[in-house]
Amino acid sequence: MIADGLPDDAWFVIIDPQVVFASSSSEWGSPMFSAALTPMHALAERYTGRTIVTRFVPQLPPQGSWADYYAVWPFAARPGDDEMYALVPEVADIAAGAHHVDEPTFGKWGEQVRALTGDTPTLVLAGVSTDCCVVATALAAADAGARVHVVASACAGSDVTNHERALDLMRLFAPQITVH
Question: Which residue ranges does the record assign to the Isochorismatase-like domain (predicted)?
Answer without folding.
Answer: 11-179
